[in-house]
Design a protein that fits this description.
The structure is a homodimer of 335-residue chains. Chain A is an alpha/beta fold. Chain A has 13 helices and 13 strands. Chains A, B: This is D-isomer specific 2-hydroxyacid dehydrogenase NAD-binding domain-containing protein.
Chain lengths: 335, 335
């Protein structure tokens, strides 16, 4: 066999095909994937999804793995999986996998992994920052100062102290636990609701969200989105939280009944909200724009340059594990 | 002696006179003072300060105590003390006493007390909130969302992770220590500078602010303002902090050389700032208004309804201690 040196040109390695469904990938991440895989990039293809998948399935080396954007625009459902039967592994660049039909994946033996805990501390930090912001009116004060009102208008509504607040966390997973740990340092009292009580934590457990809301000053939504947690914060829960209560949502928009939240805020039935997620992103209810007691960010709780590079490492680590038949690093459905 | 009942009218108790220099006092606080003291209210009088003090000094019951606003509009200096020789006690409603000439007070045997620690946790919380806000671009994201740009403009600069950041605290007093405790829960590394190292803390001590800045990602100004700490953050310190560095100031505006800070931010020589205080409040340098990496609040780090009622209790507790010859609760200069 002729060596590359002998033939006078570098031998092109045969890279495994990889389906890519992520619109914005930083240059370093893109290069790291390209070095290892033959990328079939959906968003770059400009094709409709069925045509794109059909083309990939018909190629000489049909892709065995896909990287899909977290919380995303593309749903990995039965139709998707039917279209590309070679698929054995789906990696989601988010922690949530509500856009992946796990049942259908499990049925077909398709492994699923997610971003694991790469975002957890950033999301927890963001949640705490938004809570301080709502309680202490930081963003409202920012607008006040930037509009030049300080020298003109003396009075300004007081904020509220964080210490001593009873914070009810919905979902005491990785992120919820990190939020709890941080808020303890501020002197908050931590309560929680989750599918089952956790033995290892000292926080008071509530069997349902309604009771949690009744006893809490602040509700933090930190659970995954699934059929049981869709609108887990509904009209009744907002009522139970009460007029001095504050909602922080860093889970998914649909964990909260957004129209009821708008109504409760408009009518002063709750005191404020810090929202990183919305039901119909990137649409935000226009009513929020005139509310000084609402702090909104555009689903950026995970967005730091540090988490971005951690995500790159986690993505490639999982892909390499899959292609070499080793255990996935951050499995959701390990097969 | 005729009893009030016998004379048919309530005997008006003779209340001790109290000088009051605070423009805005909530109704409950005002009522609590009025029940106990005959208030000589400078801002309500409309008089120039010398006339007001001369009138008070000439009254049959010249005031022995004064309540002055923290960080304030009225300076208790030699001229002030000369004008009202009956004065034996000054209470500042702020923690800082840079508006009170302690040397002149000490020389005349005038006791001084301040608000003690009533604001400490609120200020520490606010400092942490502003740091998260600057790192994670919360207020900038708020503007982005409120201006309707989310659906239109996809890309947005990434924030930075709080965990692992080296935070240099200038002044490890009550507030600085509470900031350190909170930031430890986020995984920050704490460094500090203060007049002398503190035995009881595990944080690395730096003998001067320049070295602290060189080793830190974030500088938090949490010291009192005095001649040694005026412009303690100057051009050299900003240079040492460097282009990825962030300044948080919840001390006094004049702790930072504001014009140098403006320049450093404009020229990208530091990365961002969170400022609750300014050199010439309520004036804020207009250059800040167009900077997305600056978070500004209008000296509200102490402003919560909880700290307000704690302040009322502390003020009255100190006044009652002074008038009954007991030790002050929160003395600065106890005589």
């Amino acid at each position: 066999m002729a060596s590359p040196a002998a033939s006078g040109e570098a031998e092109a390695p045969v890279l495994p095909a990889l389906l890519l469904f992520r619109r914005r990938l930083d240059a370093a991440f893109h290069a790291a994937l390209r070095r290892r895989y033959h990328l079939l990039d959906f968003f770059a293809s400009g094709e409709p999804l069925p045509a794109f998948l059909a083309g990939a399935a018909a190629s000489p080396d049909p892709p065995r793995a896909a990287v899909v954007v977290g919380g995303g625009a593309v749903r990995v459902d039965a139709a998707f999986l039917d279209a590309i039967p070679s698929l054995g592994f789906v990696f989601s660049t988010g922690a949530g996998v509500d856009h992946i039909d796990l049942h259908e994946c499990a049925r077909r033996g398709v492994a699923v992994a997610n971003s694991g805990t790469v975002y957890s501390t950033d999301v927890a930090d963001h949640a705490v920052g938004m809570l301080i912001d709502v309680l202490r009116r930081v963003s409202a004060a920012e607008r006040f100062v930037r509009s030049g009102l300080w020298p003109v208008q003396g009075d300004y509504p007081l904020g509220n102290k964080l210490g001593g607040k009873r914070v009810g966390i919905i979902g005491l997973g990785n992120i919820g636990s990190l939020i709890a740990k941080r808020l303890q340092a501020f002197g908050c009292v931590i309560y929680y609701n989750s599918r089952r009580p956790r033995d290892s934590v000292p926080y008071k457990y509530f069997l349902n969200v309604h009771d949690l809301a009744s006893e809490s000053d602040v509700l933090v939504v930190a659970c995954a989105l699934n059929k049981d947690t869709r609108h887990i914060v509904n009209k009744d829960v907002l009522e139970a939280l009460g007029k001095d209560g504050i909602i922080i949502n860093i889970g998914r928009g649909a964990n909260v009944d957004e129209m009821e939240l708008v109504r409760a805020l408009k009518e002063g039935r709750i005191a404020g909200a810090g929202l990183d997620v919305f039901e119909n992103e990137p649409k935000v209810p226009a009513e929020f724009f005139s509310m000084d007691n609402v702090v909104m960010t555009h689903h950026v709780a995970v967005f730091t340059s540090e988490s971005r590079s951690d995500l790159r490492d986690t993505t490639i680590g999982n892909l390499e594990a899959f292609f070499s038949g080793k255990p996935l690093l951050t499995p959701v459905l390990p097969w």
